[in-house]
Design a protein that fits this description.
Blueprint (H helix, E strand, L loop, with lengths): L2 H12 L16 H14 L3 H5 L7 H12 L1 H11 L1
C-alpha cells in the first residue's frame, strides 16, 4: 500500500464517528476570559489559535466551541429552554 492510500484509510477511519454539537458540555469561562474572547474576535475574527494564545490554559478548539455554544442558534434555543 502506498502512502496516499494509508493517509486516506486513516482519514476515513477518524472521521466516521461524528459527535453531535448538541452533546458538547458547556465550557465555563471567567468574565475576564469572555470579555477578552469577545474583544479579540472583533479584532481578528475566528482565528481561534491566536485568541487562545492570549488566554493561558485554553486551547483553540475550546475557545471555538465556547463561541459556537454562546452564539449559535441551536444553543441559543437550548439555553432558553433550560432557563424555563
Amino acid at each position: 500500500m502506498d502512502k496516499r492510500r494509508r493517509k486516506q484509510a486513516k482519514t476515513s477511519n477518524c472521521c466516521s464517528e461524528e459527535v453531535s454539537s448538541i452533546e458538547w458540555e458547556f465550557i465555563n469561562m471567567s468574565e475576564q476570559e469572555e470579555d477578552l474572547i469577545h474583544r479579540m474576535y472583533k479584532l481578528v475574527g475566528d482565528r481561534w489559535a491566536l485568541i487562545a494564545g492570549r488566554i493561558p490554559g485554553r486551547k483553540a478548539e475550546e475557545i471555538e466551541r465556547f463561541w459556537i455554544m454562546r452564539h449559535g442558534e441551536v444553543f441559543a434555543n437550548r439555553r432558553k429552554e433550560l432557563k424555563r
